[in-house]
Amino acid sequence: MSAATAPGARSRYDAVVVGAGHNGLVCAAYLARAGRKVLVLERRHLVGGATITEEIHPGFRFSCCSYVVSLLRPWIIRDLELPRHGYEVLPLDSTFTPFPDGRYLLRDADPERTRRAIAAFSPRDAEVYKQFGQRMAELGRLVKPLVDGVAPDPTSLRPSELARLARLGRGLAGRGEEWLVGLVKMMTMSAVDFLAEWFECEELIAPMSVSGIIGTFLGVRSPGTAYVLLHHYMGEIDGSYRAWGLPRGGTGAVAEAIASSARALGVEIRTGAPVARIQVTGGRATGVVLENGDEIGARVVVSGADPHRTFLGLVGAEHLEPDFARQVRRFKMRGSSGKVNLALDGLPEFACLPGRGAHLTGDITIAPSVEYLERAYDDAKYGDFSRRPFLDIVIPSLTDPTVAPPGRHVMSIFVQYAPYHLKSGAADWEHQREAFGDAVTGTLEEYMPGLERRILHRQVLSPWDLERIYGLTEGNIFHGELSLEQLAFLRPVAGWSRYRTPVRDLWMCASGTHPGGGIMGAPGALCARALLAARAV
Amino acid sequence: MRYDVIVLGAGQNGLAAAARLAGAGRRVVVLERRDEIGGLCAAREFHPGHRAPGVLHDEGLVDPAVAGRLGLERHGLAWRAAPPVLLAEEGGPGILLAVEPEAAAAELGRRSPADAAALGELRAWLARLAPAVRRLLAEPPPKLAPAGWGDLWRLARPALALRRLGRADLTELLRVAPMCVADFLNERFATALLVEGLAAPALSGTWAGPWSAGTTTFWLLAECAAGRFVEGGPPALAAALARAAQAAGAEIRTGAGVARIRVEGGRVAGVVLASGEALDAPVVVATCDPKRTLLELVAPGVLPLGVEEEARRIRSRGTAATIHLALDGPLELAGRPGERLEAIRIGGGHVDDLERAFDAIKYRAASSSPHLEVRVPTVADPALAPAGHEVVSILASFAPYELAGGWTEAARARFLDSALARLERHAPGVRSRIVAAELLVPPDLEAAFGATGGQLHQVEPALDQLFALRPCPGAARYATALAGLFLGGAGSHPGGGVRPTPGLLAADAVLAGSTRP
Question: Does A381 contact B212 at a Cβ distance shorter than 8 Å?
Answer without folding.
Answer: no
